Structures are given as structure tokens and as C-alpha cells.
Amino acid sequence: MQINAYGAYAGDKPLEPLKINRRAPGAHDVQIDIAFCGVCHSDLHQVRAEWAGTHFPCVPGHEIVGRVSAVGPQVSGFKLGDLVGIGCIVDSCKHCAECEEGLENYCDGMVGTYNGPTPDAPGWTQGGYSQKIVVHERYVLRIRHPAAQLAAVAPLLCAGITTYSPLRHWNVGPGKKVGVVGIGGLGHMGIKLAHAMGARVVAFTTSESKREAAKALGADEVVVSRNSGEMAAHASSFDFILDTVAASHDLEAFLALLKRDGALTLVGAPATPHPSPNVFSLIHKRKTIAGSMIGGIPETQEMLDFCAEHGIVADIELIRIDQINDAYERMLKGDVKYRFVIDSASLAG
Ligand code: NAP
Ligand code: ZN
Could you tell me the sign of the dihedral formed by the alpha carbons of 13, 14, 15, 18, in that order? Predict the structure, then answer.
């Protein structure tokens, strides 16, 4: 089936309308009519070939929500009309230790929602800046939020799980002091989730203009990280810091804020590496630098249910698909509070 999509033919070209094919649903497949798709900074990194290995034409988008419009004969968990989501994963090997533990995100055979290998033409997956998607039911998530919130649920599928998973893994909760660095799509979700988990949350931003707004997200305190006096006031006090920044920056400044046994976990994936931290910054107080990538399917469902129960959605700005190139420029300037979401109805016609 041919559908409308938006993508780029090269890393230095803007996104434009194009047609793509979706397979007819196989035995275990769910077909989804996409209602909304969030705009992740990873979309920009990939489609502008800032990360290696982009296949063109590239159709980004991995924060997908919509309704089931067809199911294969073996599908048991979903029926026509169900509200569902697709995040960053559309396939994996299904039998390695990671898949068996529900950590498909760490399977060597994980297939990303875009730019991943697939037998479907043209040979790589194409994402949610499109009208429909067809995915094996194992990777389909159930949405329990009210339908009226659907657009604001979309960013949970990547920004939500990418922050929820490390917050859970590093046992964030009551009695813990937690920092979230970068108040963008990921960071604003990190603040909301850490607050809902009961932690004391400090947001770090380079943007003075976000100081007040970050408090409304649930931050107990906001630090402008360019201000060394404000930073020094928090020396050696954090249990955990989650760094969501999309650009290379100095990690030493944040390592100095960790207390003994504290961890700095990186989820931001800038195209150029961070300057290496000094090993003495780690060994003196047994500190850790770690990384974390999205989350597995069961944990993504757990995160969606946690958010539905706590009334958590993203703060979004809804756009038409023909505004996407401008939205990318604004995202680079930090000019979005805090996630663009595409109204997929604008792909029709
Ligand atoms: P975003 O909305 O653009 O937010 C990134 C934030 O980082 C900005 O709002 C800004 O916050 C801060 N920032 C940007 N440039 C900066 C600079 N030069 N110096 C200091 N701070 C800067 O991006 P996002 O969608 O949240 O994604 C963030 C990063 O995570 C991207 O690299 C993305 O590819 C990556 N990512 C990783 C995973 C994973 O699984 N690990 C999943 C999704 C995304 P302030 O204005 O508050 O400073
Ligand atoms: Zn993403």
C-alpha cells in the first residue's frame, strides 16, 4: 500500500513530501493509522546524517500514536479502533537473553523504527512522519490515557521511556536528589517523571528563559549551568544526574556535583564526543559515568501506564507536517516548550 510521508533525499536537503510503501499486515502484524508523531532530536541527527549510516530517502519519526486499522489473523492483543503507540523499536531477534528479559532495546538485532534493516522495500525502515505503519504486535504499546490527550502522549514513546528507564534503573525515588540536565523534549519528561517518583529534582539549563517554566514542570530548583556560583552551591550533593543534552559539553562540571557513589548517566547522543573527563573525578568518590538507550517493550508499557495513572503527558506544540523544517531549526535554538508534535492529518491530500 502506498501512503504519504515526509522525508529527505540527502543529509543537506530539507524534508519534503514523498510516497512510501507499507506491507500488507502479516499474521502477527498490526496496522496503525497514525494520528500524531512527536519530533525527537534523534530524527534531526539521523535525517541530517549527523550520525553515521543514514539511508536515503529517510523518513524519521519514532513517537507514534494512532488507532489500529487492521490486524493479522494471529494477532490476539489488539483489535480495530484500539489506541496504540509505536516507539523506537519495530523488531528484534526475539530469542536472545535481552529479548527474553524484555530488554529488546539492547538486542543486537534490534530494528529501529526508521533507518533499520528490513526485508520490506526499500530495505530500511521508514518512520512515523507518514500516514500509517505496520508493526509486529510484540512492539505495539497500549495507550490508556484519554483519547483527547493523544497528541501529548506521543512524546512518551521516546522522550518518556528514555528518561523513565534510567530513573528506574538507578532507583530514583523519595530521599534521592536528582539532577536533569537540558530542558528539551527528553529533559522536561525527566523532570516530570523524577518528580512523580518522589525525588527532589534540580533542573540544569543553559537557557535563562526556561528558569521559571522548569519549576512548573516539577523541578524543586533550577540552576543555570553557565553560572558557576549556582553550580558550586550544589557541589557533592547529587545521588543521580541524567544528562539529556544534544551537544558536546563539559561533563566535569556535573561530576563535581555528585556525592560518593553517585552516577552521571548520559542519554543525549551528540554527533561529536564530549571532552574526556579526568579519571580522578571518578575515583576519588567512586563515581560512575553510564549510558542508557530508550527502554524495552514491557518497561515502555509500564511507563505509559505510570503516566496514565499520574496524569503525565508531554508539553507540546502541535505543527503541520509542512512546518517540520522550521521546527528543526527552532529545536536547535532550544525554541520549543518542549516537544513539537506533528498532526498527521496534515499528511492527507
Ligand atoms: P532537544 O529537545 O533538542 O533538547 C536538548 C536540550 O539540550 C536543549 O533543549 C538544551 O536545553 C540542551 N542543549 C542543546 N544544545 C546545547 C548546547 N550546545 N549546550 C548545552 N545544552 C544544550 O533534544 P531531545 O529530543 O530531548 O534529545 C536530546 C538528545 O538525546 C539528542 O542527542 C537525542 O538524539 C538523544 N536521544 C537519546 C536517546 C537514547 O536512547 N539515549 C533517545 C532519544 C534521544 P537547555 O536549553 O535547557 O540548556
Ligand atoms: Zn527519540
Answer: negative
